[in-house]
């Protein structure tokens, strides 16, 4: 077929069938039958690579495993390199691959036309926790089983650094189930080595991509996944203490055998994560390890410590950490002052916070007063004072900003409005509005939603007052502004703000001018607010949800896939069973309307796995199979994790614990 240049005539079904046939032929070579000649092996390799690059890796995986069993790692490396090379020239599975790569000795290959390599545009894995957009944007996605065979070849040669190089040149991540699948087909000792390598490579991948590590740790800390954070941290420390480590904390020690640097800020991220998870002993261990490995804490490390203590409202520890930092000769920057001011006000120590704020202002140079971070520090101080009911001192800061810079912005005034609205102080609220007008600032959606929420308690014409004020400021209310107001009112999560939001919705629903009408985004904001109204009785919540759904239908508005994803995500914020029920309700609506997409499966399955709702997760997997959807990349790994939730039985001498 190469000679006749008809490779493009092979269809998808034939690709798969022939790849499986090659796999069976390779498995048969494990017996006592005659072995292939070199010419036959070359032909099998070429066909296996061709079919795998078209999307069917069974043949290539089997042939690589055959070479591993024969103790020929270099043959595996050669196959893997040729496979990667074909990916660089591949446009889609339907198009002709460059036969000069697959069959370099064919006399019928036409080399007269130059080929321009193109990198595949793979699906954007927006929900991949460990994605690092900068480092992975142009990396090929290799089939997990193929890259695992390459890793096994490195394990056979005891070359972990080579395995690191291999894994970092792809955008592929490997699941536990995939590791077990390959390891069970190898000799027992090599299988165990492959499992060990794969586990260590997951650590290497994260450390080598600081952006990925940062996002991953942030998500883990938000989920309070302290056990996972601890396991990852301990695996990093273990690698640092190996006899021949591939990882170093010293840039001067980077070389071909130690190719990865552990950045100083990584220690700070672990420190903050452990504090957020209330794992004070582990936070102390991080600090001890800093000294053990000779890492000098930077200002960023100290800031992480301050932010962690602030999150826990540990005022005494905050003050001690600050003194230690200054004792080490570290000069705090604006972010450090921001951390201690915010932390002390959280810990109900506003006077101490004020002292550091004044110290910060005293050290500012004239040009720094115009920096956005300087205003942020001032606004944080104002917020902290107001949260501690220190209104008089907050007003002093406001006067200071008016007189000496940085000039207050609408965010500054919104904080005062929020304080007075919370206390029902309408006269003071009006005074703040006058100050906004005097400063020639324009209110935003937060301003008007706070005002509306406060006025609705005492005035029946509250909406008209707010809308008149908007027009006075030159703001013509449109559907975008109305929707923003509804959104911010719903975020207040009180019966009064809920009522106010529905009143705004009624206002635009009844508009007869033709200039304003609610759209799908407006109704999404309303439905999201209803789903978040956990203070409401379940029956009442469902009545409101159905009522808004009816209004949407009457207006002929169709919920988009994005809207459904938003509603599913908001419903799953509810930790009670009701949240799962509502999420599944919207998912089934999507299923009936044929709106389910890859991201739908991912969001839902990820949440169901986190909540350990295995029965519902199994139902979703059945739906996926009925739809003929084949999961790939991060979704494939998620599905594998769900299926592997129970102990591995019956097919192997390995278990998931081996990983």
From TrEMBL:
Keywords from the named record: Membrane, Transmembrane, Transmembrane helix
Record field: transmembrane: 44-66
UniProt keyword Transmembrane helix, yes or no: yes
Coiled-coil annotated residue ranges, if any: none
One Pfam family matching this protein: PPR
Intervals holding PPR repeats: 298-332, 597-631
Listed Gene3D superfamilies: Tetratricopeptide repeat domain
Signal peptide stretch: none
Name assigned to this protein: Pentacotripeptide-repeat region of PRORP domain-containing protein
């Amino acid at each position: 077929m190469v000679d006749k240049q008809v490779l493009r005539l092979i269809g998808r079904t034939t690709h798969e069938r022939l790849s499986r046939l090659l796999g069976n032929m390779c498995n048969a070579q494990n017996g006592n039958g005659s072995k292939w000649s070199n010419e036959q092996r070359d032909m099998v390799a070429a066909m296996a690579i061709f079919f795998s690059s078209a999307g069917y890796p069974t043949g290539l995986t089997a042939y690589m495993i055959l070479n591993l069993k024969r103790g020929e790692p270099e043959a595996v490396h050669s196959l893997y390199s040729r496979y990667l090379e074909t990916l660089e020239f591949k446009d889609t599975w339907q198009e002709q691959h460059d036969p000069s790569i697959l069959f370099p000795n064919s006399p019928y290959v036409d080399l007269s036309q130059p080929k321009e390599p193109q990198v595949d545009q793979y699906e954007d894995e927006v929900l991949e926790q460990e994605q690092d957009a900068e480092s992975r944007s142009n990396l090929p996605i290799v089939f997990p089983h193929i890259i695992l065979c390459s890793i096994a070849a490195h394990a056979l040669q005891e070359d972990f650094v080579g395995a690191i190089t291999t894994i970092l040149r792809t955008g592929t991540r490997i699941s536990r189930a995939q590791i077990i699948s390959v390891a069970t087909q190898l000799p027992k000792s090599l299988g165990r080595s492959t499992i060990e390598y794969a586990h260590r490579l997951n650590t290497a991948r994260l450390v080598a991509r600081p952006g990925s590590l940062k996002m991953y740790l942030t998500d883990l800390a938000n989920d309070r996944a302290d056990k996972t954070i601890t396991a990852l941290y301990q695996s990093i420390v273990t690698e640092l203490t190996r006899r021949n480590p591939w990882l170093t904390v010293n840039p001067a020690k980077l070389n071909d055998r130690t190719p990865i640097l552990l950045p100083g800020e990584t220690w700070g991220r672990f420190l903050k994560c452990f504090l957020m998870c209330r794992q004070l002993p582990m936070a102390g261990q991080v600090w001890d390890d800093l000294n053990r490995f000779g890492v000098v804490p930077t200002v960023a490390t100290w800031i992480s410590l301050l932010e962690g203590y602030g999150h826990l409202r540990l005022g005494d520890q905050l003050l001690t950490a600050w003194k230690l930092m200054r004792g080490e000769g570290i000069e705090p920057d604006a972010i450090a002052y921001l951390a201690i001011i915010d932390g002390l006000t959280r810990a109900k120590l506003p006077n101490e916070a004020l002292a550091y704020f004044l110290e910060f202002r005293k050290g500012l140079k004239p040009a720094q007063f115009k920096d956005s971070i300087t205003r942020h520090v001032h606004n944080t101080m104002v917020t902290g004072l107001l949260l501690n009911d220190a209104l008089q001192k907050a007003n002093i800061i406001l006067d200071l900003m008016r007189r000496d810079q940085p000039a207050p912005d609408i965010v500054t005034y919104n904080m005062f409005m929020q304080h007075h609205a919370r206390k029902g102080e309408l006269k003071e609220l009006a005074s703040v509005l006058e100050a906004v007008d005097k400063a020639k600032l324009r209110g935003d959606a937060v301003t008007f939603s706070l005002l509306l929420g406060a006025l609705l308690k005492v005035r029946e014409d509250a909406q008209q007052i707010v809308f008149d004020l908007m027009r006075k400021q030159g703001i013509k209310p449109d559907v975008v502004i109305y929707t923003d107001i509804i959104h911010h009112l719903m975020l207040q999560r009180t019966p009064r703000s809920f009522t106010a939001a529905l009143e705004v919705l009624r206002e635009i629903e009844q508009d007869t001018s033709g200039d304003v009408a609610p759209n799908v985004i407006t109704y999404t904001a309303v439905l999201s607010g209803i789903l978040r109204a956990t203070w409401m009785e379940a029956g009442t919540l469902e009545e409101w949800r159905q009522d808004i759904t009816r209004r949407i239908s009457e207006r002929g508005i169709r919920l988009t896939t994005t809207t459904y994803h938003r509603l599913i995500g908001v419903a799953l914020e509810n930790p009670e069973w009701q949240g799962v029920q509502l999420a599944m309700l919207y998912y089934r609506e999507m299923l009936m309307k044929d709106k389910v997409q890859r991201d739908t499966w991912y969001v839902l399955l990820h949440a169901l796995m986190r909540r350990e709702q295995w029965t519902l997760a199994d139902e979703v997997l059945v739906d996926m199979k009925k739809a003929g959807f084949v999961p790939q990349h991060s979704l494939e790994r998620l599905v594998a994790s769900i299926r592997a939730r129970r102990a591995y039985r019956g097919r192997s001498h390995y278990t998931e614990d081996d990983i």
